[in-house]
Amino acid sequence: MKIPIKVLINNKEVKTMVEPRQLLVFLLRDQLRLTGTHIGCDTSSCGACTVHLDGNAVKSCTVLAVQVDGRSVHTIESMAGSALHPIQEGFKEEHGLQCGFCTPGMIMTTANLLRTCPNPSEHQIREALEGNICRCTGYHNIIKAVQYAADKLQKEVKHV
Amino acid sequence: MIPSSFEYMRVSTVAEAIDALRHDTDAKVLAGGHSLIPAMKLRLSQPSKLIDISRIPALNFIRDRGKYIAIGAATTHGTIATHKTTVQKLPLLAHAASMIGDVQVRNMGTIGGSIAHADPAADWPAVLLAAGATIVVEGSTGVKKIPASEFFVDFFTTQLGEGELITEIHVPEPTVGTYRQAYAKFVQPASRFAIVGCAIQFELKDGVISNAHVAYNGVLACAFRDAAVESSLNGQPLTEATIENAASKAGAGSNILSDNFASAPYRAHLTKIYTKRALQSCLA
Amino acid sequence: MSNTNYIGQSPKRVEDKRFTTGNGRYTDDIVLPNMTFAHFVRSPHAHAKIVSVDTSEALAMKGVVAIFTGQDMKKTGIVGVPAGWQVDFINGDRMKEPPHALLVWDKARHVGDGVAMVIAESRAAARDAAEAVVVEYDVLPAVVNAAKAVHDNAPLVHDDAPNNKAFDWTLGNPIGEVDAAIAACAHVTTLEFTNQRLSPNAMEPRCAIGNYDQYNEKYTLYTTSQNPHLTRLLMCAFVLGIPEHKVRVVAPDVGGGFGSKIFHYIEEAMVIWASKQINRPIKWTSTRTEAFLTDAHGRDHVTKAEMGFDKDGNVKALRVNTFANLGAYLSTFGPAVPTYLHGTLLQGLYTTPKINVKVTGVFTHTTAVDAYRGAGRPEATYLLERLMDKAALEMNRDPAALRFQNFIPPFDGVTQPGYVTQVALQYDSGNYGPVLERGLEMVGYENFRAEQAAARKKGKYLGIGFSTYIEACGIAPSAVVGALGARAGLYESAQVRVQPTGKVSVYSGSHSHGQGHETTFAQVVADKLGIPMSDIEIVHGDSEAVAFGMGTYGSRSLAVGGSAIVKSIEKVLEKGAKIAAFKLEAAVEDLEYANGKWTVKGTNKSIGFGDVALTAYVPHHYPAGLEPGLDFSSFYDPANFTYPFGCHIAIVEVDIETGKVKLNRFIAVDDVGNVINPMIVDGQIHGGLAQGIGQAMFEEVLYDDDGQLVNASYMDYTMPRADDLPMFETDRTVTPCPHNPLGVKGAGEAGCIGSTPAVVNAVMDALHPFGIKDLVMPMTPERVWRAIHG
Fold first, then answer.
1. Distance in Å, alpha carbon of B96 to nearest chain A alpha carbon
2. Secondary-structure class of domain C376-474+641-789 per CATH
3. What tens digit of pLDDT does each residue of C384-443 get?
4. Same domain, B208 and B239
């Protein structure tokens, strides 16, 4: 039986009916057509489905839609304004992506990292991304992308 | 992957949760869901109902109660890793929490969910054993306080009875300066669960070890303390020789787990090595 | 320098705005009106007779639209999906090619074999109903190992393939000559090993949407494919017998392939066939576990290799015998990988005068094996480069010096002929010394041995490993590969359509699934036409837009697909010059083209590309007899393969207490010919390195003796993660390809081909004090620990 939920998704209130077994990732992809969040593994291993729940990175393939009732979800679609977000820009500038499938999850996890640790070392970046698998890049340029974003975000902070 | 159908009920008090559990014996408790939902997606678990306890305020806190720190069962690993109280007063728990899974898992998975699930490879059971924690369980017959040393029984099996709910974990505050603690693990490279984890806590007075707790996860069907290792430490000075001796006692049990990543003899060996490494980290 | 000199520059990728913002359009993102969802019932057994399939309960469930079983498919007369390459037995007998049914009705031959297709109104309903389909199996014994499967008493995968052999095959010098050469050698190094089975694991699981439009009698397939046209051709001509002009195949954004999305899979044919039965669109999306069970795997060779040297360390002979596991069925290029992509590479970079290779292709009760990044070439490189390091150790020679001594001397393929190997190839151009020299310089080899000795005294075990590889890309020409058994051509098509405003649309038969063609191809076009990149659009992946295409695999896109684009550009410029000459009232011979305009030599009279384009489409004042329009197609069939090469060096540290290997450094000096976009080439190398290192250290598809795939999830199959790898140290030399117009060779697979033996050699070097000479891959901590501690 479907039950009603009310969720703030990318700052917009969404009221909908879901089966209790509906995973958050399917709510986003199938019901709301926010297809930037991807499914890569089904076992909460690969991180392609990473979104922010009340500001924290979570794997939306292992969260039920009913669990986010009354809470706030941000997806990759919320990251860019009129220009790319510095993290998105970092991935583009440093060629931190190839096929693009893991990229939204990488970016959302990076955002979580840079919020809690604005100037991470290479080691900290690698550890922070251990829950996100990329099969294309060998991570080399992803590390550089995160460093680019960290630098840019820190400069922005200084200018404020 | 899609779980089979179930009913969903969100409760706002512990009493409601216990009541709901009493009325449906096929129901399961949902906190962060990071042990349960993966099993449900594989349809290894097909509960009739999920009782969501994640919004119960009484289960979501970290509080210093003087002799011990109380942690609500629905507190996430991430919160335990970063909360001021745990970082300052329970550094072993904060450190171990920061090593669980990955950041996304830590943001959702809860301490109560992890210990109720009792995966032999999970980190919390060994850490709570070493820390001398007590698990507070509530059911229709009242509140029980179960020492961690009695709580974990077998593969995915605990003392948690039907219709009961873990509400709090109580961890005695070690006296800073006299206690040494460590958690070291060798991880399975794909899942990042522990192949062997070793959690240690002991008192160090005048250079002599006492009150040693040495606990393991990943090694046997459930987390356990190793009395032989502990007694080899108690009364001894904290030296490389003591450490070598203690490590040599570790991993001696039978029924050591075996899988594609680590056979029983290799696990037994890793148990010694990680005992040594955990103890060595206390030398500093 | 003009601002349209794009070749050799690294503009940021055109693709990345959509990918970084979540606006990529992958197959599962597509929703068609009235769409249904499919879930396949798959065999849980590796080998079992199908006694009965009962769908009655499932059909009665809510939301179920239709269920098709093997028996239903048997009635259609559809035989199944074919192999795309024929490799016959040495004695002339035809390759055994048992049918690969779309759904099996007689027997399941691997875990995951499709038994029934359930179609429902939602993903969940399809999943629920699949669970209610009752299949009775009669379980039979299975065989999973290729070397064991050829035994007389092994269970048969197919009744008409005795000893489970699909083919046997040999190449090189006559075996008698090679035996004699080896017998005469002063030293023979032997290696017996399994090059383990891998799962490609593109991050996007496969997905297919079939849609039959009954009013126009037209089919559309959206699919995660590296080559939509080939899928269409196979599906129309060989599988379903439907008319090709009524079938559109679209491969939109595809989330990685690494070979696994080359092949035509049964699910693609099933969604197309079934959509006609129910007159509704059907979407099927693979779960990750299904991906492990049904995406074609890679490698899985059991090999004995012997390399003979004279007393001075010169390689004199190589003898190789391989059992190649093909899985339960022949996948599209399954037979080609262990033969023409493996045996032909056994010359390596060395002057070995006598080589013989024998390969037996074997059926087992496992998932089909086909091309995975490198495809045959990593297997060849692994055996050669392991032999080189092992031989150096045995002969007490320096592994770098032994390689230098045996390298083929430099040749440019222009003034000097290509190098003819003992195994049927002619290398295009090569200069092998400099990549190793540069690698040694980057790694600081002079100081390494001292560091290593000092570290060992402190109980720290460092090791260095080398690999100097060659590979073959852009497999061609069609006539040659056809003679070798290929059932397709290996050219590529490209259409360059100059729009009336001078903007350019390029339709390429290559397919990008991470390679960045929209950027690299645009650079080529912009550079050659002297116009801004922003004036160019690269279109690919849609059989309705692109005339034809052979797709992307074998590192062929730029060398073959890019060359086809250049051919069309040449035609555009040739016709453009005629129009320009007319407008400028000059002779064509007096014009020169640069920076987007034709100029009469020695004057300032010129006309821009855009003006010529407009004239071509508004031909009021126009050369007599010249057709209007400015739009050309080309089909480029290369004269030869291209042969990239390079040197990879790994430095590892082994924790001898736990056996855990840590990769401290990785140096890669690759020569991929000319480079269009260095940033993208570096990225391709990095990704290849990670996968090659993954094979050495982490990855292995594990079957138990019953044929169960025991690590079919990301919780169990290990791939490198961010914290497993170091930053890579890369450099290049440039030896242009002499036979294609861009001088490019190919970069997609090189990293994966060279890196694996470098890591293994490094571990062997680190473990040398323990007397360890060989270890099976992957070098897991327990394996290393057991080797050290007996």
1. 15
2. alpha beta
3. 999 999 999 999 999 999 999 999 999 999 999 999 999 999 999 999 999 999 999 999
4. yes
pLDDT, one tens digit per residue, over A82-118 is: 999 999 999 999 999 999 999 999 999 999 999 999 9
Cβ of C18 within 8 Å of Cβ of A80? The answer is: no
Residues of chain C neighbouring A127 (CB-CB closer than 8 A): 722-723
Out of B43, B186, B190, the one facing C717 most closely (by C-beta) is B190
The pTM assigned to this predicted structure is: 0.97
Question: Residue C476's pLDDT band (boundaries 50, 70, 90)?
Answer: confident
ipTM: 0.98
Contacts of C683 in chain A (CB under 8 A): 95, 98, 136-137, 141
What are the tens digits of pLDDT across the range C305-338? 999 999 999 999 999 999 999 999 999 999 999 9
Domain boundaries, chain A: 3-78, 86-159
Give chain B's length: 284
> What percentage of chain C exceeds 90 in pLDDT?
97
**B198 in any annotated domain:** yes
Interface of B with C (CB under 8 A): 1-2, 4-5, 43, 186, 189-191, 260-263, 266, 269-270, 273
Shared domain for B24 and B97, answered yes or no, is no
Q: Do B105 and A44 touch (CB under 8 A)?
A: yes
Whether pLDDT at B176 is above 80: no
Query: Which residues make Cβ contacts (< 8 Å) with residue C281, sequence separation at least 6?
Result: C32, C33, C34, C35, C36, C209, C210, C211, C275
Distance CA A5, CA A69 (A): 5
Q: B237, exposed or middle or buried, with CB in 10 Å at 0-12, 13-18, 19+?
A: exposed
> Which chain B residues touch C776 with a CB distance below 8 Å?
none
Residue keyed to tokens 């590296």: C226
Distance (Å) from the C-alpha of residue C417 to the closest C-alpha of chain A? 36
Which residues form the domain of B262?
Answer: 179-281
Q: Taking CB atoms and an 8 Å cutoff, what residues of chain B touch C124? A: 2
Structure-derived torsion over alpha carbons of residues C72, C78, C79, C81, reported in degrees to the nearest 10: -110
pLDDT tens digits, one per residue of C201-215: 999 999 999 999 999
B158 with B189, same domain? Answer: no
| Superfamily grouping for domain C31-140+204-255+261-294 | Aldehyde oxidase/xanthine dehydrogenase, a/b hammerhead (3.90.1170.50)
Q: What pLDDT shows up at residue C790? A: 79
Superfamily of domain A86-159: [2Fe-2S]-binding domain (1.10.150.120)
CB contact under 8 Å between B6 and A109, yes or no, is no
d(CA C652, CA C720): 15
Distance of alpha carbon C241 from alpha carbon C483, whole angstroms: 26
Q: Where in chain C is the domain with CATH 3.90.1170.50?
A: 31-140+204-255+261-294
Token couple for C293? 């069970």
Contacts of A60 in chain C (CB under 8 A): none
Asked if residue B254 has pLDDT above 90, the reply is: no
* Per-residue model confidence (pLDDT) at position A160: 62
Mutation for testing the A interface, residue in B36, B53, B104 having most A CBs under 10 Å:
B104
Domain C16-22+491-636 has CATH 3.30.365.10: yes
* Domain A3-78 in CATH 3.40.630.30: no
- Band (pLDDT 50/70/90 cuts) for residue B284 is confident
Q: How far apart are CA C209 and CA C249, in angstroms?
A: 10
**Using the beta-carbon criterion (under 8 Å), do B2 and C127 form an inter-chain contact?**
yes
